[in-house]
Design goal:
Structural class: alpha+beta
Helix content: 25-40%
CATH topology of one domain: Ku70, Chain: A, Domain 2
Order of helices and strands: EEEEEEHEEHEEEHHH
Distance between the termini: 85 Å
Shape: elongated
Number of strands: 11
Strand content: 25-35%
Number of helices: 5
Amino acid sequence: MHTVWKGSISFGLVNIPVKLHAATEDKDIKLRQLHKKCNNPIKYKKTCEHCNEEVQPEDIIMAYEYTTNKFIELDKYELEKLKKDQEAKAVDIINFVKLEEIDPIYFDRSYYLSPGDGGGKAYSLLRDSLANSGKIGVAKIMIRSKEKLAVVRPFNNALIMETLHFPDEVRAISDVPNIPENIELSKKEMDTATLLIDQLTEPFEPEKFTDDYRTALMELIKEKLENEKGVEAKQLDNNVVDIMKALEESIKKTKAKKTTRKKTEERKKA
């Protein structure tokens, strides 16, 4: 399993070298956009609207837009230093809480934690002590230049880390429009709804659920591959391009020579 991050997690005086592995993967079927004329994939280029030209990576700077169309530039060395300063203190477990105290709206992504070299015993200590206490650890960690709030908890026979959204990243429920309040519901309506919920209640078994759209899309693709001939992108012939450029340059040079010759002849006649 691919390692996405290496470091350590500490609680108290215990330091645990760990490796981070993505616990989930994107199973979406990727569809490409092609140019209808030649079936070549569409590419997106970074351009400047003001200069009307493509911008190369070395010509791009980072900046923060503090008001409309006004920016403060951030030097890449300043950003790198800030990142390194935060990385040194980003993996400490701050405190311990109960899992049920955290609303699912805060959860972002899940990662498996495996012990690094020599970290097996400390890893087991944290895993087993969390399982015995019924608590989870709250920590901060730097991943891909961004500080994230996270929780560490036992999962089967391993530790799992789940990143969380910071409170200011979760929008206020009061901003949601048209939420009904003080709607009177009869006892019969409530009893019927509760009965329906009870009848449909069963243990959560995630393997029972599948992505029906993805399955149907994959079946459609397989069917088309069996019954239709795929399209092929028209490759650009570099030789043709080189020849065309050579011809165009030759025409320009020929025109220039004719113009020079004509001016010379006119001077002689004068």
